[in-house]
Amino acid sequence: MPGDLDEVRLAVRRSLVETGVDTVLVACSGGADSLALLAAAVHVTRPHAVRVVGAVVDHGLQDGSAEHTTRVVAQMAALGVDETVSARVQVDDGGIGPEAGARVARYDVLDQMAHHFGAQRVLLGHTLDDQAESVLLGLARGSGGRSLAGMRPAFHHGDDPDGPLFVRPLLGLRRSQTEAACAAEGLAFWDDPHNQDPRFARARVRHVVLPTLERELGPGIAEALARTATQLYDDTGLLDAIARDQLAERYDDETGFDVRTLEPLDAAIRDRVLRLAAIRAGCPPSELTFAHVLELRRQVANDRNLPKHVQLPGHVTAIREGDVLRFGRTI
């Protein structure tokens, strides 16, 4: 059987080889997951004409972060990447919390880096453990199927189909495997203190909730949660595709919806159509909750005491006037 190092390399090879990619940007924090990912990317692309750019993002949230960034840049260069790049970002939680705010800032700058270098793909080092944690966090928030579907294996930032494809090659592997891969290559990895900090929900899930579930329910919980995410991802993807088609038929950026055209839709599709319209009007997807969508659903059925206004994230207002539900900037 292949060892952990071989498993990591195989997962990365499947994401890069024979894809027509000539430049790939690999996000690296210096942790075991991203270091193993970067080392594997360098290894599997050597026989091919693929340029590997190692990228580190400094969120400025910890003391000594600039010095850490310098160390990671040197480590990436030592691994043999073709180029290195680093950036410091300003994290604005915008009411969504520091973890989500850091993620938004990180993906924004990675997308900019990829465009700068002409990278068709951006590799992220999330593992099966991260996926299981995401499913539990989504369950705790009551966020529905979209959050329970966990992290997407691949996506375009901002849903821009012409932008670089963000890919998570290691979603099928455990964190212990990336640590073993680093050990096999003699790579010293960084353990982010935030991963141990109980102030953060993900840290509590990682060190308290998942171990408790494993102890009380038996081993294999993380794998089961990840399987659930995979199944829900496929289901959610199908429903979202149907909703996008329905949005294109029923929605106009200027005039909005004629609510009578929404009434025949099943609730699962109608809610998705309303959510997509709100996002199209400028609502940040990460801030648009089920409570907001539920209020929009009420306005579709509400034909009394009009007009009605619904305040949405991102300074967007939904207005029901007569048979029309439209979205505009909050004044």
Write a structural description.
This protein is of the alpha/beta class and about 325 residues long. Helices cover about 50% and strands about 15% of the residues. The strands form two sheets. It has a six-stranded mixed beta sheet with strand order 3-2-1-4-6-5, with helices on both faces. It has a five-stranded antiparallel beta sheet with strand order 7-8-11-10-9. The mean pLDDT is about 90.
**How many strand elements?**
11
Instruction: Please list the strands of the largest sheet in the order they lie side by side.
Output: 3-2-1-4-6-5
N/C terminus separation: 63 Å
- Taken as a percent bin, the fraction of beta residues is 15-25%
From the alpha-carbon coordinates, what is the Rg to the nearest angstrom? Answer: 22 Å
SSE succession? HEHEHEHEHHEEHHHEEHHEEE
Structural class determined from secondary elements: alpha/beta
Q: Tell me the number of helical segments per DSSP (H or I, 4 or more residues long).
A: 11
Overall helicity? 40-55%
Kindly identify the CATH topology of the largest domain: Rossmann fold
Mean pLDDT across residues: 89
Shape: globular
CATH class of the largest domain: Alpha Beta
Overall structural domain count? 2
The assigned CATH architecture of the largest domain is 3-Layer(aba) Sandwich
Fourth-tier CATH superfamily name of the largest domain: HUPs
- The low-confidence runs, each spanning 5 or more residues with pLDDT under 50, are none
Biggest sheet features = 6 strands, mixed
